[in-house]
What does this fold into?
Amino acid sequence: MELQVLALDVARGGVPILEGVSFTLAAGHVLVLRGPNGIGKTTLLRTIAGLQPAVSGTVSLDPEAVAYAAHADGLKATLTVRENLVFWAQVYGMSDIGPALEAFALQPLIDRPAQNLSAGQKRRLGLARLLVTGRPLWVLDEPTVSLDSSAVAMFAAAVRAHCAAGGSALIATHIDFGLDSEMLDLAPFKATAPAQDGFDEAFL
Amino acid sequence: MIALLIRDLRLAIRTGGGFGLGLAFFLIIAVLVPFGVGPDSAILGRIAPGILWVGALLSCLLSLDRIFALDFEDGSLDLLATAPIPLEGLVGVKAISHWLTTGLPLTLAAPVLGLLLSLPEEAYLWLIASLLIGTPALSFIGAFGASLTVGIKRGGLLLSLLVLPLYVPTLIFGAETIRRGAEGLSTTTPLIMLGAITLGTLAVLPFAAAAAIRVNLR
It folds into this structure.
């Protein structure tokens, strides 16, 4: 499962923000996206996850191979940790949530409603969802927000195990969590050309 | 998809889920009308079909904006859109769970409220039949409206304005069925029309709603 992104142009709200993004991510590897705020990390990740169309260029991998995790964890406040996780496991056709609970030390919280979790615990539950998707490419947007150092270590271990099993991860982050990863700085891909057909589009 | 249906039903009956909200609203409307119109049972009996249908419509409207807005706010909608469930199926399941928590309870409660409004005896069967056949259309049209307004903050009012005109055919044929039933006339034509509207919305609107969600998630 190799992800190849070729000459990808992405736009947000009709304004092109990244141009000619090209990279390759082989199975078993981690690619970290860097760049200042607003450069388009989230937009790029959403495009690769298939949530929005690219302006031009190609992404070799089908969105069906991607597990996406964003700033929001998608947890239901009134459901318990177990119910939240079992739901996502069923959606992805998996049955065993044990390894996911174990990887993020959620076992003691299993019957707690998600609304009573702390921000870091919610994040851990949101990340545990990745383990029940069974998808080869993880596309993660700032996964370590509100995690403490031991939770960051849990996350790094989960990513390492995922890569060892032949998966790969594309991560936008500002902190270094000691993974053996390649790095891609998005700043050189910043779009310079003005919006070309945005004007027509606004009228049609 | 079954998992999604179970999750939505579970969310609806937990705290703040909104189950019973529509039902309570329906009850209040049916209780308020006799206060406003007066206790004359001849008048009440004549307007009862219309009141019950308008009440059902408004109660349905009350919980529509929750269909997608809550999932959009906490990020679940993004995750569901990338999950292996087709968006069309997602819309269908959401509309069905809305009907199970709103339309079905309304249908079951309507005969009791018909009693309050002195609905003629012969009309009860048609009241239940018309609501049972007509309310799924309300949920599916509503899900379509909710998908159009999913990215908009406080989109509930806009949603009502979009959806209410689309409810008109269902209202007309629904109330007409009961009126004819009460007067002992043939109800076949309005019932068939009602069923046709419901089947039409079932067939078309999940696709339209899924397309709207795709655009709104960009």
About this structure: The interface with chain B takes residues 49-53, 63-64, 66-79, 83, 87-88, 90-93, 129 of chain A (CB under 8 Å). The beta strands of chain A are 3-12, 15-25, 30-34, 56-59, 66-69, 137-141, 168-172, 182-185. The mean pLDDT of chain A is 85.
